[in-house]
Amino acid sequence: MCIIILYESKEMNTSKKHLISAAAITFVAIGFLTSGLALAYPYQDPNLPVETRVEDLLARMTLDEKIGQMTQCLSSVSTSNVASYYIGSVLSGGGDGPGGNNTATEWADFYDSFQAAALSTPLGIPIIYGVDAVHGNGKVRDATIFPHNIGLGAANDPDLMERVGTVTAKEVAATGIDWTFGPCLTVVRDERWGRTYEGFAEDPEVHDNIVAAYVRGFQGVDANMQGEKIVACAKHYIGDGGTTGGVNAGNMECNEAELRAIHLPPYERALDANVGTVMTSFSSWNGDDCVYHDWLITDLLKTELGFDGFVISDWDDVGSTSLTNIQNAINAGIDMSMEPYRPITFINNLKNRVNGGYVPLSRIDDAVRRILRVKFRAGLFEHPYTDRSLLPSFGSSEHRAVAREAARKSLVLLKNDNTVLPFAKSADVFVAGRNANSLKRQCGGWTIGWQGMPSESSTSGITILEGIEMLSTGSVTYNESGSGAAGHDVAIVVVGEDSYAEGSGDDSDLHLYSEDISTINNVRVSGTPYVIVLVSGRPMIITDEIADADAFVAAWLPGTEGDGVAEVLFGDYNFTGRLSYTWPSEMSQIPINIGDAVYDPLFPYGYGLGSLADLNEDGFVDWADVKIFCDSWLKVPGDTGYDSRANLYEDLLSIVNFYDFAIFAGEWN
């Protein structure tokens, strides 16, 4: 009888997960029967309040089961150890995964094998599985890959951000995964840092506009984190982008007032949307490591801000061998420790600290209570397995359309002399540069692998060159080195950085690579009008290169949909992106941020050409544009001062409409 009930419950699932076979269902059912549970206890009743279920389950758990819940293992862990040590979470970091062809179906099978092991334990507590889906479900072949956060910050569109989160969540859920280690809420104050592209902006005003929407996209408007939704993780708490010298995992030196004014607001916005988890930073604040900082974790985050989800440490940050580090981290408020190397050692040593009285059982109970709360909220007890009905939508054209829109809106036009942009589609176009036909470089780090794609064929997508070829009705000629540009109507030179992530991405010299400079010079001497498109994870030193270029576009790391870049170059859509980072003119200016006492950048924070309302094209919408508008809107073609953009409006309410356009587009300064 109990087997029938369990079988029907799994097969009739209407939300996130279902069992992959009757055999697996029977296996889980027998597990419940042999333990004497069979849906007999309050924590198994989905109709009860979450807190009631949490307390009932917590009261039934042994110390070993509790510590297991506080442990996250790498996906190389055996399924037998998941069961034997009551492991609470598994992650795939870097290039870890199921192997094979790295398909969504293989990931679903991989996930379900770990979940079956967890459910075979006496209490049947499901795992929560985490991945770095930081710009789409980028670890999986053929996923929809969005621009990295630096580009999304330039777009600064909350409606778009919610849709990006929604698509990402659905493609993560399609592989069984329940949890993304994102969004990254760093406020980056120094572009030399190798994770600059993971930050939306250098100033929290951008975060104020888009973070809550992004979290809602991941978790749902009501943060139920079920069905096509997943659990989000706000990281890296706190100040990872504010370290001295932009050193990865370095030390942030500032007072509490600055921390609260600059680095805390993004987390407050995530909490406004009820983000489920928070990850601590590798970095330190005034010499004290964030992972051991009880004031930051317990007093500020959990008590003052009222965060009731769980806090996880970053990759091996607590470690497994130091008893002192383990007790200090747990006592400071770490609820789950990411232990990729020696999880069993961590388990044994944390148990030692509890039995020795160094970590109170009340702290263990608080941590486990928080973990169970998130698991119940996410519906993992009712729907623990992959919902394979989501697989057909993985990497779909509908999802890629959202990524293409994001790529378009992330572009920032820095220069456009003689209105060389947009190009006519019938133009004879010459394309150059090693980043023009490289999906690996345009997706950047955290794509398939930690530092980026192992090869150009690791996933599918459209390069910028392929996008240009798709849209052009004229001729397109490509030469990577820029040879042969003479005689064409226009040239597009696509240059920039290689893919990277933290550590290897830290760089004290942000000038263009010599190879890129050579390519630009080859095109420049041809006499053909040319546009430079920069594919990079941060502003670079381009003062010399932009001087002779006819136009310059910051494309950031646009993701798999390179045709979105081409659509704007050809004028199907306007440039709307604005710099969310100050653009330095030389290395000696770095760090440079809006609000500095001395502020003379190449381009200021908020700059960007191309708006219909930016009539004088100075990168801002202000009273100067209003004057141009008023002087022009009653004029006709041929009149001095006529501007066709002002004459988009033909009635006496034109000025009001102009104000509406500028203000409601978020462009008014």
Top keywords for this entry?
23 helices; elongated; five-stranded parallel beta sheet; 2 domains; TIM Barrel; alpha/beta; six-stranded mixed beta sheet; disordered C terminus; Rossmann fold; 669 residues; disordered N terminus
Description:
The protein is an alpha/beta fold and 669 residues long. The protein folds into two domains: 2-392, Alpha-Beta Barrel (TIM Barrel), CATH 3.20.20.300; 411-583, Glycoside hydrolase family 3 C-terminal domain (Rossmann fold). It is built from 23 helices and 17 strands. It has helices at 2-11, 22-34, 50-60, 63-69, 79-84, 104-119, 149-155, 158-173, 204-219, 256-263, 265-272, 294-304, 323-332, 343-355, 361-377, 397-410, 439-443, 464-471, 514-524, 543-548, 563-569, 623-632, 654-664; strands at 71-74, 89-92, 128-131, 179-180, 233-237, 251-252, 277-280, 284-285, 288-289, 310-312, 337-339, 412-416, 429-432, 476-478, 490-496, 530-535, 551-554. The strands form four sheets. A six-stranded mixed β-sheet has the order 12-17-16-15-13-14, sandwiched between helices. Strands 4-3-2-1-11 form a five-stranded parallel β-sheet. Strands 5-7-10 form a three-stranded parallel β-sheet. β1 (71-74), α5 (79-84) and β2 (89-92) form a beta-alpha-beta unit. α3 crosses α15 (361-377). The chain starts with a helix and ends in a 5-residue tail after the last helix. The model is unreliable at 1-37 and 664-668 (pLDDT under 50).
